[in-house]
Amino acid sequence: MQLASTRIITDDVDALVAFYEAATGITAERLHPMFAELRTSSGTLAIASSATVPLLGDDAAEACANRSVALDFLVDDVDETCKELQNVAEVFVNAPADMPWGNRSLLVRDPDGNLINFFTPVGESAKARFADDVPRGF
């Protein structure tokens, strides 16, 4: 089994696509006016309109209601990413900080309130875990 993508349901596809394009430097592929994908070598972030929810089933999803999932983006330098995000993100949950598991992490919220973690491995075990990964974003 392979995780193919993570999908965010939103009331404003254009605004969310613009945010993620600016925050990651990745250009979204618009497959439909109600759907876009930002593809990386390790996975895809899909953004879909809340107008698609009835196709999934009654009340299957709700835009702007997530408070339990974070999206993690591996970046080369989280402190530099923080500077770059000053004109992109409106809500900064924290400043870059070292986490006990070996990452330096910055948390922001996207326009729908979803939690986004930009991180850089700084501890030896974290660096080893991500040694073969190619950072995306800034």
TrEMBL record:
Keywords, in A-Z order: Dioxygenase, Lyase, Oxidoreductase
Gene Ontology MF, one: lyase activity
Organism: Streptomonospora salina
Family matches, as Gene3D superfamilies: 2,3-Dihydroxybiphenyl 1,2-Dioxygenase, domain 1
Protein name from the UniProt record: Catechol 2,3-dioxygenase-like lactoylglutathione lyase family enzyme
InterPro entries: Glyas_Bleomycin-R_OHBP_Dase, Glyas_Fos-R_dOase_dom, VOC_core
Record-annotated VOC domain positions: 2-121
Superkingdom per UniProt: Bacteria
Pfam families: Glyoxalase
